[in-house]
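User: I'm writing a tutorial on reading structure tokens. Could you give me a worked example: one chain, its sequence, then its tokens, then a sentence or two explaining what the tokens reveal?
Assistant: Sure. Here is the example chain.
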Amino acid sequence: MNETQMPPRLEGRKAVVLAEELYEELELWYPVHRLREEGAVVTIVGTGSSTYRGKNGYPVEVDGIWAGILRGRDVTCYHAIRDDVINAGANYEDREVVVDGNLITSRHPGDLGAFCRAIIQGGVDHGQV
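And here are its predicted structure tokens:
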């Protein structure tokens, strides 16, 4: 680290990013790289498969299975999965970013700047990512 670089703000914190078949590469990899850049340990999870392909064919291997974390939580998401999120028990809100404790969600690539700022701020303020 040189004199102009700031120390990583999320050093040692853990984060989980969800991947699904035909994921949007930018929506997955931009947050993953920003979180790692800030020092977080990032785990990529899926809903059942061990490998998923993005819309442009880029594969990602996941480290675990994501299940049950939405029940009773306030979230936002891409409009195409809104019904799935509601059926999983979540309280859907159509906003750029929704923060519910340590769960931080956004809707689409246009929200990525605000999404990454919220993730990093959550880690800095509360020790949670």
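What the tokens reveal: The helical segments are 25-37, 82-87, 112-126. The radius of gyration is 15 Å.
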